[in-house]
Design a protein that fits this description.
The chain is globular. 43% of the residues lie in helices and 16% in strands. It has one domain: Alpha-Beta Barrel (TIM Barrel). The two termini are 32 Å apart. The protein contains 10 helices and 9 strands. An 8-stranded parallel beta barrel has the order 2-3-4-5-6-7-8-9, surrounded by 7 helices. Helix 4 runs parallel beside helix 5. It is α/β, with parallel strands linked by helices.
């Protein structure tokens, strides 16, 4: 799994039982250069911790594989709504981590999961749903060649549900290991305003060694949301890496959420997410 996904799954399970919960994102909007408004969320802490850390919101998991997802349970969503009221923070987006083990391209339950997640996102006010393509759901084979048959089926299933997402005011954000050109081709094939990319700068850059700033510029106006992380380190430990990334994001006029999927080197989760959030705000000040 990509960095911190297992940690995230554990926190999501706690959230579903009424403990902590995990941001609100508006779909990506393009504004004039220099006018970007960036909000900072996280998928590695709950709403109370996010408020303590000075974040703007959190990202919520849809739950584990089942015929009916946890997020589709009205009682679960009601608990989220109560915690949002208590903290004053929104849910930016939903994340479908289960698609890593139960691929969207092959699991027969996936189309129903997409529909359930879209309906839940509408109810919670979340504007983006992350569709994950890692582990068993990876769109690349062991030689880093695109699995064309998987892409074909994923495109077909996403196209089928895109009108439902549009009606709900939701963006489906595809997150994977592909480079900018490969993802642009997928978006061209789907050709729907409610389908964009969810861009993880670590998975694409550090893991796959893509040119992240170039990808971001190529995909201008087609990125719904960003994940920022830096392996076991703080984001500001690698300023030389993140400054060009931030410059490219600003250049495209992106306005939306940057969600932290960061680790906790000090083991103080609130302090560490606050440090990373403060650094991101300085990058976009």
């Amino acid at each position: 799994m990509p960095m911190n996904r297992r940690l995230f799954l554990g926190q999501t399970a706690a959230a579903m039982t009424g403990g902590t919960l995990l941001p609100h994102l508006g779909a990506a909007e393009v504004v004039a250069p220099g006018k970007s408004s960036i909000r900072i969320g996280a998928c590695v802490c709950g709403l109370p911790q996010a408020r303590a850390a000075g974040l703007d919101g959190v990202e919520v998991g849809v739950g584990n594989a089942a015929d009916r997802l946890q997020i589709a349970d009205e009682n679960v969503r009601q608990r989220y709504k109560e915690q949002m009221r208590e903290t004053g923070l929104p849910i930016s987006s939903l994340i479908m981590v289960l698609l890593n083990a139960c691929p969207l391209a092959s699991d027969p339950r996936a189309p129903a999961w997409l529909e359930q997640s879209i309906d839940a996102a509408r109810d919670l006010g979340a504007r983006v749903i992350l569709l994950a393509f890692f582990s068993q759901g990876d769109l690349l084979d062991s030689a880093d060649k695109v699995k064309e048959s998987d892409v074909d089926e994923a495109v077909r299933r996403i196209k089928a549900v895109a009108p439902r997402a549009k009606d709900a005011g939701v963006i489906l954000g595809i997150e994977n290991y592909l480079n900018g050109e490969q993802n642009a081709r997928i978006l061209d094939r789907i050709n729907h305003e409610s389908v964009q990319l969810y861009y993880d700068v670590f998975n694409t850059g550090t893991t796959k060694h893509h040119n992240v700033p170039a990808d971001i510029r190529l995909l201008k106006g087609r990125i719904a949301q960003f994940h920022f992380k830096n392996g076991p380190k703080y984001l500001d430990d690698d300023a030389a890496k993140f400054e060009p990334i931030a410059a490219a994001i600003k250049e495209t006029g992106y306005q939306g959420w940057i969600v932290l999927e960061t680790s906790s080197p000090s083991k103080d989760a609130v302090a560490d997410v606050r440090r990373n959030a403060d650094y991101v705000r300085k990058l976009f000040a």
